[in-house]
Amino acid sequence: MTSYPTNTQRTADIAIIGGGIIGMSCAYELARQSNLRIVLFDKQNPASGTTGGTGGLICLHDMGEIYASLTLKGYARIQELRRDHNFGYTPWGALSVFYTASRFPPAPTAYEKRFGHGEKSIYQHELLETSELLRRYPWIKPEGVQGGAIYPNQGFIDPYELVELYERLAIETGRVQVHHNTPVLQIRNEGDQIKTLVTRRGAWQVGKVLNAGGPWGAKIAALAGSELALTPQRIQVCVATAFDDGLESAPLTSVPASVNDEGVWCRGELGGTLLFGQHHHTTKEGYTVDPDYVNRVNDPDYPQAVEAVHRRFWHLPKSVFLNGWCCVYGTTEDGFPIISRDTHLQNFYHTVGMNGHGMTCHAGVAQATAALMLHDRTTIDMSDVMGKPAELDFSVLNAGRFVEGKLLNFELL
Ligand SMILES: Cc1cc2nc3c(=O)[nH]c(=O)nc-3n(C[C@H](O)[C@H](O)[C@H](O)COP(=O)(O)OP(=O)(O)OC[C@H]3O[C@@H](n4cnc5c(N)ncnc54)[C@H](O)[C@@H]3O)c2cc1C
């Protein structure tokens, strides 16, 4: 039987609420950069929130400097975990197919020029003439195809394996405790400080508190009497039985059409199925849900709508399109995360609003959180992934930007 700390033992320098990829990678980062005692609570099991339903893609996010920088950090971390801990990564690549209206071969983008260096880069790619593209990816219909580009270093991870690895590495420091099935139920403040977290298993006296509650972020902030401009939005994933058509692996790719006005990405899954995920980048009307009461089943017509669109571009005659699952994004109005001290409480921090990008960006996000919580800094060093002295200033990700009208955009300045 697990033994729980007694009244006098329930203290921590830092308490983390939420054990998804963000909370757990922050626990690891904070522990390896300090000697502080850290406790993490998850109300269910780690990765049981958004993280467990993710597409798990480690892919390009050419959506401005912040996302491009966080992508480099995440990609580098996955390669490091593969090397040092035999972590699983499936580099099936990402494929861009160029149709009639687009220019082929494409000119190098500003992102490639600035962020992509060398063969191991996530930007590394090979251009494919139409005949070679159709030979390698025979389910793609030839009509209108001009050529393609395959990015072989992009791929996907198993989110449960990643969170479990961070949990193990954090605990191995000897300074981190992780409590599963332990919701934080109440937050008690004195003046502008949080003093106590009341959990299902007792009260903890805490120094600093990190809200890493993903789509529950605003609910957690509300426990402390704070407001957070974070909106939970329902996202659907459906599945096609591509093994019925002999397909065993497929890169991340998409078709030049939307489903019900939504973008859809597709990637192969281990076992020869295809996953199709709905996505949008900023808070959108009609998708807001309570993450505790979300309908986990697809809308009845969603798999058929995905099927109808994809059959126009792909030849998969035997594949059956099925209900997958639904998950919840923690979205923000401008599509960027919040990595910030609370606007009122001095020892309360938020790392939420990862939208559809938290798996790729987690390592940079965790480094930024550690810089803020340990050193009161709003920059992180980028020289390890840029190959030259460089910094990322993330002060613009502050929680106050929404009321101040300082929303961010996806332009590369
Ligand atoms: C369908 C889908 C596909 C995606 N695909 C990709 C992708 O391919 N690549 C990519 O980079 N990103 C992707 N994302 C985004 C990525 O999965 C998320 O950004 C990331 O998982 C968010 O992690 P998190 O730790 O912030 O949140 P969560 O994983 O939701 O973690 C929050 C945790 O907080 C806990 N919690 C909540 N309230 C309390 C409380 N009161 N007390 C204690 N614990 C509490 C919950 O139990 C939960 O475990 C996708 C998302 C979805 C929905």
Q: How are the elements arranged and paired?
A:
Blueprint: E1 11-17, H1 21-32, E2 38-41, E3 57-58, H2 65-85, E4 94-99, H3 110-115, E5 126-128, H4 130-136, E6 145-151, E7 155-156, H5 159-172, E8 176-179, E9 184-190, E10 193-199, E11 202-211, H6 217-223, E12 231-240, E13 263-269, E14 273-279, H7 302-313, E15 321-331, E16 338-341, E17 348-352, H8 358-375, E18 379-381, H9 383-386, E19 391-393, H10 401-404
Parallel strand pairs: 1-2, 1-11, 2-8, 11-17
Antiparallel strand pairs: 3-7, 4-6, 5-6, 9-10, 10-11, 12-14, 12-15, 13-14, 16-17, 18-19
The structure holds flavin-adenine dinucleotide.
Residues 17-23, 41-44, 48-51, 53-57, 183-184, 212-216, 220, 235, 237, 277, 327, 329, 354, 356-360 line the site of flavin-adenine dinucleotide (FAD).
Task: Describe this structure as you would to a colleague.
It is a single chain. With 413 residues, the chain is an alpha+beta fold. It folds into two domains: 7-54 and 159-228 and 335-400, 3-Layer(bba) Sandwich (FAD/NAD(P)-binding domain), CATH 3.50.50; 92-153 and 232-331, D-Amino Acid Oxidase, Chain A, domain 2 (2-Layer Sandwich). It contains ten helices and 19 strands. Strands 1, 2, 8, 9, 10, 11, 16 and 17 form an eight-stranded mixed β-sheet that branches. A four-stranded antiparallel β-sheet has the order 13-14-12-15. Strand 1, helix 1 and strand 2 (38-41) form a beta-alpha-beta unit. The chain is globular and about 70 Å long. The protein starts with 10 loop residues before the first strand and ends in a 9-residue tail after the last helix. The site of flavin-adenine dinucleotide has 39 residues, from helix 1, strand 12, strand 15 and helix 8. The site of flavin-adenine dinucleotide (FAD) has 39 residues, from helix 1, strand 12, strand 15 and helix 8.
